[in-house]
Amino acid sequence: MPEASTSSRRPRQTDIPSRRDQAALARSVGERMREARLMLGISQLTAARQLGYANSSKLAKIEGGKDSSQIPLWVIKRISCLYDVSVDYLLGNTETMEVEDVRHAALREMNVHMRERWERLRQRDVMADLALRERIVSIEDSIVLLEREASETSAAMARYVELNPSWADMRGGSRLLDAVERTAAAARTARSRLNRYRREAREAAGAPQLDLVFC
Questions:
Q1: Are residues 94 and 150 both part of a single domain?
Q2: What predicted TM-score, i.e. pTM, was given to this entire model?
Q3: Cα torsion at 39, 43, 46, 49 (round to 10°)?
């Protein structure tokens, strides 16, 4: 028996797509939705909330093609508006995302460039921040050590004076004692400022941060 031709095995345009074909289309649409969202630079949770969902689980299933073989039409329409892409692109009828090719292509290219530039600057700031933190930790350790040594020196000096009453009559004795006490006081002040800095840093860390979002 002659083998059927390739064209005869293809489903006709008038045929109702099988469940497998519908599932494949849903996966394709979901992948394009995810790609458009990533190009826009917004998180899955942010997009889901703007679509009207309470969390990202529903959108995650749609993007992964795991929800069902059907995607609500209102979701496709809202995503087209939210991501500023054509419905034809989401449905796989075209490879062009832009609704208005020239204008949107330029804006999207600038958007990508700005995100890349911002990421490079962010990485630079992170490295600078890490280097600064290492220096601060080194300074903190030195201050703690200085305060401890100055305190021990002051205590040892006080004990020496107690055991040697005639020490105060020695030339320069009073000046030495005053210098030891001033050193201990300066070390305590530095330690107090260090503790205040740590407290202010913890409070600042809990303050809301400004996130730059390019869309």
A1: no
A2: 0.39
A3: 90
Which of 203, 182, 192 has its CA nearest to residue 143?
192
Q: Are residues 93 and 138 in the same domain?
A: no
Chain centroid offset of residue 20 CA: 39
Residue 185 has pLDDT above 70, yes or no: yes
Which residue, 124, 111, 125, is CA-closest to 38? 111
Q: Do 160 and 90 share a structural domain?
A: no
Instruction: Give the domain range for residue 147.
Output: 131-205
Is residue 84 domain-shared with residue 29, that is, in the same domain?
yes
d(CA 97, CA 104): 9
The one-letter code for the residue type at 78 is R
Q: Is 91 contained in some domain?
A: yes
Domain count, the chain: 2
Please tell me the distance from the alpha carbon of residue 164 to that of residue 160, in angstroms, as a whole number: 6
Give the single-character DSSP code of 95: S
Residue 48, token pair as written in the block: 């889901």
32 with 83, same domain? yes
- pLDDT tens per residue, range 91-148: 887 776 655 554 566 666 777 778 888 888 888 888 888 888 888 888 888 888 888 8
Token match 């458009």: residue? Answer: 36
What's the rounded Cα separation, in Å, for the pair 76 and 59?
Answer: 11
Amino acid symbol at 25: L
Identity (one letter) of the amino acid at 43? Answer: S
- 121 torsion bin: left (phi>0), alpha (psi -120 to 50), beta (else): alpha
